Amino acid sequence: MSIKKSPWIIHYDGSSCNGCDIEVLACLTPLYDIERFGIINVGNPKHADILLITGGVNQQNKTVIKNLYDQMAEPKAVVAIGACACTGHFFAECYNMLGGVDTVIPVDVFVPGCAARPEVIIDGVVKALAVLEKKQQEKVTA
Amino acid sequence: MELAIFLIFFPLLPAVLLVFSKNAFFQKWITIIASTVIAAASVLFAIQYMKGSGEYSTFICPLPNQLIMIGDIILALVFLFICRKLPLRRYWIPLLVIVQYGLVLFYDFSGRMPEVTHYLYLDGLTAVMAVVIGIVGTLIAIYTVGYMKHYHHEHPELSNRTHLFLATIFLFFSAMFGIIFSNSITWIYFFWEITTVCSFIMISYSREPIAIQNAFRALWMLLVGGLSFALAIIYLADSGYTLELQRLMMMPVAFVLLPVLLICFAGMNKAALYPFGNWLLGAMVAPTPASALLHSSTMVKAGVYLVIRCAPILKGTTAGAMVALLGGLSFLAASAMAVSQRNSKRVLAYSTIANLGLIVLCAGIGTSFTLWAAVLIIIFHAVAKALMFLCVGTVSHQTNSLDIEDMQGLIASMPYVTIIMLIGLSGMFLAPFGMLISKWAVIQALAIRSPIFPAIVIFGGSLMLFFWTKWFGQLIAIPNARQQNLEQGIGIEWVALWGLAILTIAACVCYPLIGQYWLVPMYGWNPMLYDKIELSIAIMLGLMLLPPIILLIRKKHLVYTTPYLGGANVANPQEFMGSLSSPRPWAFKNYYLTRFFGEEVLMRWTIAGSIVLLILMFLVEKL
Amino acid sequence: MNAWIWGIVGILLTPVVAGLVGGIDRVITAKMQGRMGPPVLQPFYDVMKLFSKQNLVLNRFHHDLVICSLIFTVAAVGLLFAGENLLMCIFALVVGNVFLVLAAYSTNSPYSMLGADRELLQMLAAEPMILLAAVGIYMATGTFDINLIASGTHSAIQYLPGVFFGLIYVLTIKLRKSPFDLSTSHHAHQELVKGLSTEFAGPSLALFEIIHWYETVFVMALIYLFFASRPIVGIVAVLIVYFLEILIDNINARVKWDLMLASAWVITLIFGLGNLMLLFILK
Ligand code: SF4
User: Fold this and answer.
1) pTM of the model
2) How far is it, in rounded angstroms, from Cα C203 to Cα B488?
3) What is the best residue among A13, A101, A111, A114 to mutate for testing ligand 1's pocket, by most ligand atoms within 8 Å of CB?
4) How far is C105 from chain A (nearest CA, A)?
5) What's A2-141's CATH class?
6) pLDDT per position as a tens digit, A1-17
7) Smallest CA–CA distance from A72 into chain B, residue
8) Quick check: ipTM above 0.90?
């Protein structure tokens, strides 16, 4: 129950055009103020519960994403934000691209859009909360 | 009384034996047996005298004065002999010798020395000092045997004179016991100069140019102290007051302040307070046991011992306040400069000066409260600092480095040595032990008078906390990869290391008892009881037992991971993926704040300030 | 007997009070930035969540050292509320701090160790003023015994305005607020990731938060001691000071360590020691 009230996020910007990146930061501004939900952008995988990824995965950043994911404490969730993070979008055909985030780590929530709007991003995080809670219950029962 | 005389003369026997035994086996066993005897005798002595109020005794001996006179002559010749290789521009060194011995011998021959009835004086303070020398000192002697073997192994170019080194150590014990037991000032002077000779021999041991140079620097600085001592003797002899230390302390302040200040000056000089602090830094070129023995735990303690003895006269006088300020300045400046040092031996040297400064600060104020604290610091500092020196010596043998940055994660490669080192470090600065308790006592005792002294102690103490914690942290920065064990080849050194570690723990756990049952009879009251902090102390001591226990309990729910490196981790945790897709090592170095606390920044001001204070110390009395 | 009860009450109440204060702090901060901010109980949610998470560690010691730090910080607050010697309480707090720094060092991770070094710098900057404040209280009230200070008839503040100002200055360091949040910050956007606490995860981080709660209460209690003879005034003063700290936090950017150290020491010397010297001369 408690994890729902204080989901801390870490934001990683992969191979993106920075459009979604800016939208994620917009969530922190007074207009959207995600801290209302106890959400903090901690910028440190060891403290975070949710990994927000904007942009696709390429040869350079695949290990980084993998490492960040591995360094998060359970229970944890991954949200892929924007078309790039979901599928690679129009970068997908590039010589160095692997595609969406789910090519390296398991993704729990896909947030569509180019760029994804702040409202949708917040919605995506809220969806991730349900995933987190389920994982936590599984951990308790296990 | 017999024990005291035994302690003065017995060490001469192994000293003589050692001069003639070049065989490592004999050296080892002579050292061990003699050390055991000395340690046992000093403990017996302490038990005998820790409670009693002081006891005078006469030393039945024909012509004691003449004996000392002959001793002085021999010593003067030894000094001059030492000076034979002197670079010409240091002509003032033999001059210092000639002037001071000339004066003293002149008075000796002219028969104007006042009669001394009690040659020895034994009380609680001598008991403390005797235990420090007798136990800490002998443990260091035992360590030396193992250390020198490694030392010569590493420096094959040096000629092996271990036997002389060990002999000097035992000669030094004899002299130290002489200083603390003697009541006659001429005797103290005689033994005092012997320790100077010992210091010279040990610093110049390697006979490398830098060692010789530093040895001569130490020599002339210490001889200045000797000169001041000689002047005190002349003054007393000339005015015909007395040459007994204890009686001197009971004289009216106005009459004897000057000679007492001269003696204090000698004490502070030996304790390496500024402006003379630099000889101690230079002395760090000596083999580590010498640094531990002479330059941290015993010889320099003779200096503060004398200042503590002078406390009854200093108490309440302006000159006494100047002495305290000099101590305070050394405490502050040395702590600050220690922050900027990377070389572990230099950090230890600076912190030694700082601690001695704190003791002198306490002694200069001279209330029973601060004296109580001063003696406690002597005990803590002697065991913990000796331990640190020996650990650093061992580490430098095994890793060939004295740099603190190279000790990062030492706990993985040298677990036991590091644990011992951590014990020493905790004893030094973690509350409620060591420096913290004295910090408390000084602040508590002085807050009502002038805020200057508490401020000095507060700032210096914060600086000390900074560099000790930094070092402590370096040691326990556990590397994330397996390390090879580097503790092979440490032999007899373990005895000393563990012995001192156990002593440090004992001092930490028992100091409220020491404070109550040993120091209270000396100074009449127990600040811990008086200020009702015994409960806090007990709670803190109790809590201090918890960390080792917590660390020992194995935890199950922990999940191991890799350090955060911006996601650029590679298989080796000490490396990260560089921008050119090749692993590169990362490194972390500490802050040294050289812009604020560097030697070049502070040294000039410290020396200038301390010289001004010294001049004031002698002048205020005239005003 | 009374002292024990007070001490235990202090230890038990501190997390409640400090958690609430932390929550209010976050709401006020949000309001100052034109946001709505989290619920007031947010700090409790955070800590509870952290306890339910996995305990990621780099080695087994670093969690233990955080526990040691907690023990001593709690003891400091306990001793303070029990009315023991003020200096001893401060020393206990210092030991707690030292253990925290050691915990960060023990991880051997670059960000964490740099945070540890900076935390040491913060201690170096703040400690002299805090101890001088204790000396000042002693000079004003004639005792280090917190019981007696608290039950005294006149407040220390009238003798110690300079010391009080200096204490507020270094309070920013102790409360980890801008411009002096060098070692670790409440906010994410720091060049050291999370500095000191970078490698703490789950329960370790929860303990770290709780340690900070105790520290906050400790320094607030110090502020209160300046007004001890008038409890109402004291509490109001504490609240005003805390509000000031939030304000300072929000209108300042982080400074470099040298400016922090130099300014803290200069303030300590001029306002702290200057005040004490005046008091000494005039008395
Ligand atoms: S989804 Fe669109 S806006 Fe978002 S990163 Fe990709 S290209 Fe940019």
Assistant:
1) 0.92
2) 39
3) A114
4) 17
5) alpha beta
6) 577 788 888 889 988 88
7) B561
8) yes
